[in-house]
Amino acid sequence: MNRRLNNTPETTLPRGALHGVRVIEMGQLIAGPFAGKTLGEFGADVIKIEAPGAGDPLRNWRLIQEGTSVWWQVQSRNKRSIALDLRSADGQDIARKLIAEADVLIENFRPGTLEGWGMGYDVLSKLNPGLVMLRISGYGQTGPYRDLPGFGAIGEAMGGLRHLTGEPGRVPVRCGISIGDTLAALHGTIGILTALYHRKVNGGQGQVIDVALHEAVFNVMESLLPEYSAFDAVREAAGSALPGIAPSNAYRCTDGYVLIAGNGDSIFKRLMQTIGRDDLGDDEGLASNAGRVARVAELDEAIEAWTQTRSMADVLAILGKAKVPAGKVYTAKDIDEDPHYRARDMILQQTTRDGHVIDVPGVVPKLLGTPGTVRSSAPHLGDDTDAVLGELGFSTQDIAALRGRKVVA
């Protein structure tokens, strides 16, 4: 059965590792909000500032259920929403009050936007010397490209990833998700946690974390640059293969493809025995990866000659018994029906604020002592405006006046 965590009273849930940390999220769409989502899942109080009217554009991205994106239900769970006009002087003043009492500020505007609103770090750090500020942008806060618009797709291209995706000689393709934004968010989250630890042990001083989308992508590009530096080698697209490591590829079965990673020395021998090619398994020239890479086409042909006469289920069962890493390419349907996902709480049921029950991803990583939780579903725009302003000391009359001037909604 799916576990339904977000309807559990918060007092009965385990206290998260980040309980007591207050985060102000000014970002929108993917990169900044994904970082806020991650912190919120581990107990941080995340207050999301949205523009009155439309709010975060992600509310209307991809598939919509009763006016709200189901993506929003994942990205904004465990957050509180305040609808605040940051372009107004009163709205900026309220934002500064919020930030003055916060531990973390997340923003992913174009560089200079906050400075134009009187909320550069030089100003905010005087109000709150311990403030940790995550700034995610296309090209970073410095450098000749800092003022150029940059989305995750551009970061993937500049970071070197897009050149490697797709089939050799064909147009580069995206991997199907906004991986550049997510990588930037994860690097930003690492930066936040590192800065919070530094603040704790070094006198309470905060700092700025500057994350560029293309740098986050570049950071996971493995040996791409050293290979060019040492050998003038430009790594190229290789389809489903793993260049320089063999055998590791997707192989055709009677009803689809399976991925087989037979590139460990002992694994390779077991794979060859399993497919009836002991001649290759016992070949001294194939005992190490270098020899296998030199003959990768021969090995791929031998493996696929075996897989293409069998179903995916048969191939996976046989290779599993032989302890050879293999797996099929999962669709959303495969994930939803997989018992392993459910056994590890990686599929949860979440009830939206409109009463719909949907399956959503669980929390990663898994902390066994202070596990992440879904404490609340994603908010409607401005659901928490009055509560948050009340915590700042605004009276009911003050809030009504601000609402009348369209500063809040």
From TrEMBL:
Q: What is this protein called?
A: CoA transferase
Superkingdom of the organism of origin: Bacteria
What is the species of this protein? Variovorax humicola
The entry's keywords: Transferase
EC number(s) recorded for this UniProt protein:
2.8.3.-
Which EC class, in a word?
transferase
Keyword Transferase assigned to the entry: answer is yes
Q: Which InterPro entries match?
A: CoA-transferase_III_domain, CoA-Trfase_fam_III, CoA-Trfase_III_dom3_sf, CoA-Trfase_III_dom_1_sf
User: GO molecular function: any one?
Assistant: transferase activity
Pfam families in the record: CoA_transf_3
